[in-house]
Amino acid sequence: MRVYVTGNITVDETWSIADIPQKGSSIHGVKVSQDIGGKGANQAIILSRCGIETHLIAATGNDSNGIWLRQQMINEELTLLPTTYFNQHSDTSIILNSADGDNAIITTTASADAFGLEDIIPHLADAAPGDILLQQGNFSLEKTRALFQLAKARGLTTVFNPSPVNPDFAHLWPLIDIAVVNESEAGELQPHGVKTLVITEGAAGAWLVSEGQRRFCPAVAATAVDTTGAGDTFLAVMLASALLRGVLPDPLALAHASRAAAITVSRRGTFSAFPSQQELAALLSTGGE
Q1: Measured distance CA(240)–CA(249) in Å, rounded
Q2: Is the bond into 164 cis (omega within 30 degrees of 0)?
Q3: Average pLDDT of 269-283?
Q4: Among 95, 204, 230, 273, which is most buried by a count of CB atoms within 10 Å?
């Protein structure tokens, strides 16, 4: 059983500045960190650290950032495909954090946009019934739909986390087996017909809707330092917990996911805040108390 994650991988640069710049201004700033980012990469990294065989299908550009990303990913126990670079700049997010706690984010999507179906589908050639295809909202509606249609035709289980949200994603629910959305996304996309639906409510917890039942699973209390990446941690650990036990996502899977997310929010950064392989193994071995 393998999980194929088709999505994006980025370089996340965080800069500390005095104030959000006005049009035409020049300001000083301090580069605080540089991390691997992108929802596809985040979820794939956590899945692999949980002991799930994971293939991340994502584009890296032929620039210094693309080389840096591949060097960093060597340390993760996952397969990054394709092995070649795209003739694009690697996707990057520049996060500007001001002294008063405000922020502005500049994100590029050139590599993800150039990553066509003809580039992606060959890397799904070995996917077999029982494997998983996991997607986020970083691709166009057409590309996302085509990949889910291919997955269903091959007997794969489809998992969708439609973030960043696109209102047209509401047309994809008949193709989805497992969906994870937040309250805002649930309201906008009105998910229906999904075998297992998880609606997250931040620090409060999450609703699990499956088999005709709707159950609330409270979150683990945590002192939040930085909530970036918590949602990706939650989804990946929830899915891994269920897969390792051979079940659909259940209250125990959500309990494991909540505990992992509590670790992530207690640390600064995204990639640097993720639980380690050892932390996840210890967490997944518990009954979720």
Answers
A1: 9
A2: yes
A3: 93
A4: 230
Q: Are 236 and 47 in contact (CB under 8 A)?
A: yes
pLDDT above 70: residue 262: yes
Length reported for the chain: 289
Write the DSSP symbol of residue 61. B
Those residues with Cβ within 8 angstroms of residue 2's Cβ, 6 or more apart along the chain or in another chain: 52, 53, 54, 55, 127, 131, 132
Give residue 103's pLDDT: 76
Q: Rounded CA gap, 11 and 60, in Å?
A: 10
Higher pLDDT, 36 or 104: 36
Q: Are strands 157-161 and 132-136 parallel, antiparallel or unpaired?
A: parallel
Helix, strand or coil, per DSSP, at residue 65: helix
Instruction: Indicate whether 8 pLDDT > 90.
Output: yes
> How do strand 10-17 and strand 132-136 relate by DSSP bridges?
unpaired
Residue 55: Cβ within 10 Å count: 21
Count of CB atoms within 10 A of residue 253's CB?
26
pLDDT digits (tens, 9 = 90+) for 148-184: 999 999 999 999 999 999 999 999 999 999 999 999 9
> What is the structure's pLDDT at 288?
53
pLDDT surpassing 90 at residue 20: no
| pLDDT reported for residue 289 | 52
Rounded to whole angstroms, how far apart are CA atoms 141 and 42? 21
Closest residue by Cα to residue 233 from 48, 8, 85 = 48
Say which residue the tokens 């959305």 belong to.
181
Q: Are 251 and 212 in contact (CB under 8 A)?
A: no
Strand partners, 206: 200, 217
Q: Which of 72, 67, 91 is nearest to 10 (CA)?
A: 91
Residues whose CB is less than 8 angstroms from the CB of residue 79 and which lie 6 or more positions away in sequence, other chains included:
54, 55, 56
